[in-house]
Design brief:
This protein has helices at residues 47-74, 79-94, 136-143, 162-166, 199-238, 257-262, 274-280, 283-298, 344-406, 413-444, 454-464, 466-469, 488-505, 566-576, 610-614; strands at 2-5, 9-14, 20-31, 38-45, 98-104, 110-117, 128-130, 147-149, 171-177, 185-191, 241-247, 253-255, 303-310, 316-327, 333-342, 450-453, 474-478, 482-486, 512-521, 527-534, 580-585, 591-598, 602-606. By secondary structure, it is α+β, with helices and mostly antiparallel strands. The chain folds into five domains: 2-45; 58-222, GAF domain (Beta-Lactamase, 2-Layer Sandwich); 243-342, PAS domain (Beta-Lactamase); 351-442, Helix Hairpins (Orthogonal Bundle); 446-614, 2-Layer Sandwich (Heat Shock Protein 90). The strands form five sheets. A six-stranded antiparallel sheet has the order 7-6-5-10-9-8, sandwiched between helices. The chain has a five-stranded antiparallel sheet with strand order 12-11-15-14-13, with helices on both faces. It is elongated, with a radius of gyration of 52 Å. The N and C termini lie far apart (136 Å). 27% of the residues are buried. Mean pLDDT is 80; it is low at 1-6, 11-19 and 601-625.
Length: 625
C-alpha cells in the first residue's frame, strides 16, 4: 500500500460576526494494489497557534512601510509624490481597498483629496469633503484625535461623505497630519467590508502621518528659505551689496555672486579668501583696511570700514565693508560674516556736495563782505545826511523866529499861519532827523551783554512815563518777568517804545488795559518771549508787514503822533540780540507785540514782581490767547 501525505496548510476564514479564524488542513492519498486511490483529510482551528505569527508578519510589513516612507522623506522627495507613496504603502500594509490623503484648504472649511488609492478615476485632485461633522475626516480634525469607524452605516458621530458612500465604504480609520500652525490634513484608510481596526493599525497610520507632517514642514521651510535667500539676493544686488563669510582658522571665505561683482570680479573667477580680498584693495588703503580687520579680531568687535578697490579695468570704486564677529563658547573669534556695499556713487555725491559747499561758502563770504560794506556805506551816508540836515532845519526854525520878532507888526493873520506851518515842519524835520540818527547809531553800537531784570526795567520805564498817564484810567497787568542776558541800555529802548505805543494807542479807551508778560517757547530753538498787549486802536493784519519798516505808519499823524521809526529800531535791537519781533492785532480790538530772546541767554532766576501781586490777574506764564 502507498500512502502520500500533504503538509499542513493553514488558511483564514471569516467566522461569526467580524471574527477571523485560521484553519489547518491535512490530506492523505492511499493506493492498495488494484484498488483505486482514496483521499482522506482533516481540518482544525489553529487560530491561537498561528495568529501571533501572522500579526508579527503584519507589524513587520507596517514597519517596513514606515521605514520606506522615512527613507523617501530623507531623500527630499517632493510633497506630491510623497503623499502618493504614503497612500500606497498604507493601503498595502493595512490590506484595505481605499486610502486617502486629504489636504485642508486655506478657507479651513474644505478638504481636498490630494492623493489616494482605490478611488474612481478623476477624483484625486478634484474630490472634496467638508470639515467638522460633514465627514469622517472633518470630525477627525474637530475631535483632534484618531477616529475609528466599524460600520459607517450606523455611525452617529458624523455624516458619511459622498466620497465614502459612493464607494460603499463600511469601516475605516483616519488620523491627523499635523503642522506647526494648523493641520495639513487627514490620512485615512477604508474598506468595503466590516473590519475592526486595531490599536496597532492606528499607531501605524499615525507614524505615516507624522513622517508626512515632518517632510511637509521641512519642505515648506526649505521653500521659505529659498524664497528668502532669493529676495535677499535681489535686495543685495539692487543695493550693490555682496554677502561674505570668513573662516579665521582656514582663512577661507565664501562670497556671494554680488560680492565678486562689488570687487570688480566675475563670480567664481578667483578663489574666495582673505588674501584675494586684500589684493583688490587700493594700495593706499590696504594697510589701513588690514589694520582695521586685525583690530576687530583682537578686540572681538564688529567691523565697519570704507576703502577703495581697483577693478581690473583700472577704475577705482569705493566699498563699505560691514562685518559681524563670531566667537566660540569660550569667546575666541572663529569667523566673521557680513556684506560689502558699493558706495562709489555716494562718495562721488559727497565729493560733489563738498565742492559745492566750498564754492557756496566762498560766494556767501564774498556776498556777505559786499553787503557789510554796502551797509557800512549806507549807515555812514545816513548818519552824514542826518547830521548835515540838522543845521538847515535849525536855520529854518531860527529864521522863522526872527521874522516873527522883527516883522510882527507888519504880518497879518494869514502870514502868521504860514510862519507857524513852517516852524511846525521844521520841528517835525528835526524829530525825524533825530530818530533817523538814533536808528543808524543802533547798528554801530556794540551790544554789551549783562544781566537784565526785565521786571525792574518795566518798573523803571513805567515811572519815566508817569506824566503821560496822569489823569487817565489805566489797568496794568504785569506778569512774572524773567532775568535775561542782554544790553540793558538797548533793551530799555525797546521796552520804552513798546509801552509808549501802548499808552498812545489806548488814549481813547477808558479804562485802558495794558498787560506785560512772558512765556518760554520750546522747539528746535527754545526762546524766552516777552509780550505787551493793549486794548487800543489795533491794526489790520494784512498790513502787518509794514509795522517794522522805517517811516511806515498804519495810522495818520493827526490821530497818533510819531516818527514811524520806533518799531524799526526795536526790531533792529532784538535782531542784534539774536531774537525776533512780531505782532498780532485787529482793528479797534487792540494789539499784542512780541519779542523773543534765545533761551540760552536766560538766567535761571526769576523774581516775584510787585506788579504781578498787585495786578489785575495772575502772572503770565504762557503764550497769551
Amino acid at each position: 500500500m502507498l500512502t502520500l501525505r500533504d503538509p499542513e496548510t493553514p488558511s483564514r476564514r471569516l467566522g461569526p460576526g467580524t471574527c477571523t479564524r485560521t484553519l489547518a488542513s491535512h490530506r492523505a492519498c492511499v493506493h492498495e494494489r488494484s484498488r483505486e486511490g482514496q483521499v482522506l483529510g482533516t481540518s482544525m482551528d489553529v487560530t491561537e497557534r498561528v495568529e501571533p505569527e501572522i500579526q508579527l508578519g503584519v507589524r513587520a510589513h507596517q514597519q517596513a512601510a514606515v521605514a520606506r516612507l522615512g527613507q523617501r522623506a530623507l531623500e527630499g522627495a517632493d510633497v506630491g509624490p510623497l503623499l502618493e507613496e504614503a497612500a500606497s504603502l498604507a493601503a498595502a500594509a493595512l490590506e484595505v481597498e481605499y486610502c486617502e490623503v486629504l489636504e485642508l484648504l486655506p478657507d479651513g472649511k474644505t478638504l481636498l483629496l490630494r492623493a489616494g488609492v482605490g478611488w474612481k478615476p478623476g477624483l484625486v485632485g478634484r474630490a472634496t469633503e467638508g470639515t467638522e461633522r460633514d465627514s469622517q475626516a472633518g470630525y477627525t480634525l474637530l475631535a483632534d484625535e484618531p477616529i475609528v469607524v466599524e460600520d459607517l452605516r450606523t455611525e452617529q458621530r458624523f455624516t458619511g461623505p459622498p466620497l465614502l458612500i459612493d464607494h460603499r465604504v463600511v469601516s475605516g480609520v483616519s488620523v491627523i497630519i499635523r503642522s506647526t500652525e494648523r493641520p495639513f490634513g487627514v490620512l485615512g484608510a477604508h474598506t468595503s467590508t466590516r473590519r475592526a481596526f486595531s490599536r496597532e493599525d492606528v499607531t501605524f497610520l499615525e507614524s505615516l502621518a507624522h513622517l508626512l507632517a515632518t517632510a511637509i514642514a521641512r519642505r515648506r521651510a526649505e521653500q521659505a528659505l529659498a524664497t528668502s535667500e532669493q529676495r535677499m539676493s535681489q535686495v543685495l544686488r539692487a543695493a550693490g551689496a555682496g554677502a561674505w563669510e570668513w573662516n579665521l582658522a582656514t582663512n577661507e571665505a565664501v562670497w556671494s555672486e554680488e560680492n565678486y561683482r562689488v570687487l570688480g570680479l566675475a563670480p567664481g573667477s578667483v578663489r574666495a579668501c582673505h588674501a584675494t580680498w586684500l589684493e583688490r584693495i587700493h594700495p593706499e588703503d590696504r594697510a589701513r583696511a588690514e589694520a582695521c580687520v586685525h583690530e576687530a579680531v583682537a578686540e572681538r568687535k564688529d567691523l565697519n570700514i570704507e576703502f577703495r578697490v581697483l577693478w581690473p579695468d583700472g577704475t577705482v570704486h569705493w566699498v563699505n565693508d560691514i562685518g559681524k564677529m563670531v566667537c566660540d563658547p569660550a569667546g575666541v573669534p572663529i569667523g566673521m560674516y557680513g556684506i560689502q556695499i558699493d558706495i562709489t556713487e555716494r562718495k562721488q555725491a559727497e565729493q560733489e556736495i563738498g565742492r559745492l559747499n566750498e564754492e557756496l561758502e566762498l560766494r556767501v563770504a564774498k556776498r556777505t563782505e559786499q553787503l557789510e560794506s554796502a551797509n557800512r556805506e549806507l549807515e555812514a551816508f545816513t548818519y552824514s545826511v542826518s547830521h548835515d540836515l540838522r543845521a538847515p532845519a535849525r536855520h529854518v526854525a531860527g529864521y522863522v523866529d526872527l521874522v516873527r520878532r522883527k516883522c510882527a507888526q507888519v504880518l497879518d493873520e494869514t502870514a502868521g499861519r504860514y510862519l507857524e506851518g513852517i516852524a511846525g515842519a521844521a520841528r517835525r524835520m528835526g524829530q525825524l532827523i533825530d530818530a533817523l540818527l538814533a536808528f543808524s547809531q543802533i547798528a554801530r553800537v556794540e551790544v554789551r551783554h549783562g544781566r537784565v531784570d526785565l521786571g525792574a526795567l518795566v518798573r523803571e520805564v513805567r515811572a519815566e512815563l508817569g506824566p503821560e498817564t496822569a489823569g487817565r484810567s489805566i489797568e496794568w497787568e504785569i506778569g512774572r518777568l524773567p532775568v535775561v542776558s542782554g544790553d540793558p541800555t538797548l533793551l530799555k529802548v525797546v521796552i520804552t517804545n513798546l509801552l509808549s505805543n501802548a499808552l498812545k494807542f489806548t488814549r481813547g479807551r477808558s479804562p485802558a488795559r495794558i498787560a506785560v508778560g512772558s512765556y518760554r517757547a520750546t522747539g528746535a530753538s527754545p526762546e524766552t518771549v516777552l509780550f505787551v498787549r493793549d486794548n487800543g486802536a489795533g491794526f489790520d493784519m494784512q498790513y502787518v508787514h509794514k509795522l517794522f519798516g522805517v517811516f511806515e505808519r498804519l495810522h495818520s499823524a493827526t490821530d497818533f503822533e510819531g516818527t514811524g521809526i520806533g518799531l524799526a529800531t526795536c526790531r533792529r535791537i532784538i535782531s542784534r540780540h539774536g531774537g525776533r519781533m512780531w505782532a498780532e492785532g485787529t482793528v479797534d480790538g487792540g494789539a499784542t507785540f512780541y519779542l523773543s530772546l534765545p533761551a540760552g541767554a536766560r538766567s535761571h532766576a526769576t523774581e516775584e514782581r510787585d506788579e504781578g501781586r498787585a495786578g489785575a490777574g495772575p502772572a503770565a506764564a504762557r503764550r497769551p490767547e
